[in-house]
Amino acid sequence: MTDMPRFGVSVLCRRADGVLLVRRGKAPYLGFWSLPGGLVEFGEAMRDAASRELLEETAVVADLDAEPTEVFDLITRNDAGETERHFVIAMFRATYLSGDVCAGDDAAEAAFVPLGRIGELDLTPGTADRIRHHFTRA
């Protein structure tokens, strides 16, 4: 446990009527589906980190928006109410350009999922609402 938030990025990547998701291969939320992403490295710009994480986790190259479309907190607490994890996440919207989807890095699985099937998956907290909101705005 650390007493400082960690800064990360995620990517909402669209292709036709689908959104690119990864099934997490490690904690937190092991086995849950989420947007591809990860931590920003020291000295790395957010957008560069988002492109890197997208490629590492899915083998996909995409055209990312110039700026994040949303920045949000992901805070988990234990039963005593103490903070266990605190991430600040910058989410970028993107449009698929190339690459055959293949899970890599810490992703157990990766796939483009039709928007209508999002509700069938176990998603990390807030992900379904975030996808629906931003998918329809793009």
Describe this protein with a few key phrases.
8 strands; NUDIX hydrolase; alpha+beta; Nucleoside Triphosphate Pyrophosphohydrolase; hydrolase; 17% helix; NUDIX_hydrolase_dom; hydrolase activity
Provide a brief overview of the structure.
Residues 4-135 form the Nudix hydrolase domain. This protein is 17% helix and 42% strand. With 138 residues, the protein is α+β, with helices and mostly antiparallel strands.
Give a verbal description of the structure:
The protein is of the alpha+beta class and 138 residues long. The chain has one domain: Nucleoside Triphosphate Pyrophosphohydrolase, CATH 3.90.79.10. It is 17% helix and 42% strand. It has helices at residues 46-58, 127-137, and strands at 6-15, 18-24, 33-34, 37-39, 61-64, 70-77, 83-98, 107-114. Strands 1, 2, 3, 4, 5, 6, 7 and 8 form an 8-stranded mixed sheet that branches. The longest helix has 13 residues, at 46-58. The model has no long low-confidence stretch (mean pLDDT 92). GO terms for molecular function: hydrolase activity. Residues 4-135 form the Nudix hydrolase domain. It comes from Stappia albiluteola. Pfam families: NUDIX. This is NUDIX hydrolase.
